[in-house]
Design a protein that fits this description.
Length: about 375
């Protein structure tokens, strides 16, 4: 079995493990077994208990040259639905898909497999390398829930790479938005809809008036607003006394996201008051906007490693979320690297053996190629908005 075959085997084994968000125990045990066989120490935190899951985040350290700065690599262990019973189907041309009734799970098992294969190759090659830190997170798909409970004081790294981006290997996201999720509640007054409708205060009607006044969708090139779920009322013959609207705001500018939320709340508060209803709101900001420096260590290392593989470098701005927001918030210069996953979050998700190999080899070179000031750089990389 050559290295690419071993990589594909690892990937297929990971795919075969059920790992929904909050249920990553099987994958965590698989990774722990691999780390133990390689003689790598690890810890599992108590994030699972805090979020109602069956597993915590895994954090491992691989000793290296203490004279070199450590590097952090991060992937997540959960997959989106439908995922139960998924299997990797390897086609003659090297394409890998699911059977068609589940996602494949290349998001993010392609990243996990790339890291595990790289560890094997480093040991086999006895390659000198800096200290390496590995973070395998839980419940990433639901707004990066698991990583929020990881203690980043354990990390010595100031440079990091999150393997969790769709597209050809050689692509990396250097910027991502603030994501603000919210819940808006209008409390009116119930009444019999047939005998005394005028005695009621219709919370659903008030919410509808508010939504009619607010723009939705893409507000500008860097901000979106979505009202995703509306619920209210108890029965057809009762004036609904309560209506709850939930949604999210995404913006490349953090302050812009806050301003949009303030506007939404102002409209709901005004209409509720005018109709004799009460209004309350809650918000959560799981991810805050960031932009990695293009002359920072993460981007420079990425360019150098891609150069070793003759890969075109493509730096993009994503409008999705990832664990990299947590790295950035804790002072780690991180970027999100494409790791051989395509059509993510759909049953036609796929990867290829060739792209998996590129991803693993890229991780290897990110680790072993020492960045030196004045070293050869790739000058003609492009920076494009994400498709």
């Amino acid at each position: 079995m050559n290295r690419t075959q071993r990589l594909l085997k690892t990937f297929s084994e990971l795919v075969a493990i059920d790992s929904p968000s909050f249920g990553e125990r099987g994958v965590a045990d698989y990774i722990r077994d691999k780390l133990q066989k390689l003689g790598i120490s690890y810890i599992e935190d108590n994030a699972g208990a805090k979020i109602g899951g069956n597993c915590g985040n895994l954090f491992a350290r691989v000793p290296g040259d203490s004279q070199k700065a450590p590097l952090l690599f991060c992937t997540h262990m959960d997959t989106v639905e439908p995922s139960k019973g998924k299997q990797a189907v390897v086609h003659p041309d090297g394409t890998v898909t699911s059977a068609g009734d589940t996602v494949l799970g290349a998001d993010d098992f392609a990243g996990v497999a790339a890291i595990l294969e790289t560890l094997e190759r480093l040991k086999e090659d006895r390659a000198p390398h800096p200290p390496i830190e590995l973070l395998f997170t839980v419940a990433e798909e639901p707004y990066c829930t698991g990583v929020r409970y990881f203690d980043f004081t354990q990390c010595a790294s100031k440079t990091g790479f999150v393997l969790d981006l769709t597209g050809p290997v050689g692509t990396a996201a250097i910027a991502a938005p603030t994501i603000l999720s919210f819940s808006l509640t209008v409390e009116g007054r119930a009444a019999h809809a047939g005998f005394a409708p005028e005695a009621g205060v219709n919370a659903v009607e008030i919410a509808a008036k508010c939504l009619a006044q607010l723009p939705q969708g893409r507000l500008n090139s860097g901000t979106t607003l979505n009202f995703g779920v509306i619920s209210g009322g108890k029965a057809a013959n009762i004036v609904p006394e309560r209506c709850v609207v939930t949604g999210e705001i995404r913006s490349a500018q953090h302050e812009r996201a806050l301003a949009v939320f303030d506007t939404v709340c102002a409209v709901f508060a005004r209409e509720s008051k005018s109709c004799g209803a009460q209004f309350t709101s809650t918000q959560d900001i799981p991810l805050r906007a960031y932009r990695a420096a293009e002359d920072g260590d993460a981007v420079r290392r990425f360019r150098r490693a891609c150069g070793k593989l003759s890969l075109p470098v493509r730096l993009i701005e994503t409008f999705g979320g990832s664990d990299n927001a947590a790295l950035q918030a804790h002072g780690i210069d991180g970027i999100v690297a494409a790791n051989a996953m395509f059509n993510c979050h759909a049953v036609d998700e796929y990867t290829t053996a060739a792209e998996l190999e590129k991803a693993a080899t890229l991780v290897y070179h990110l680790i072993v190629d020492e960045m030196k000031e004045g070293g050869k750089q790739i000058e003609n990389s492009t920076r494009l908005p994400e498709n």
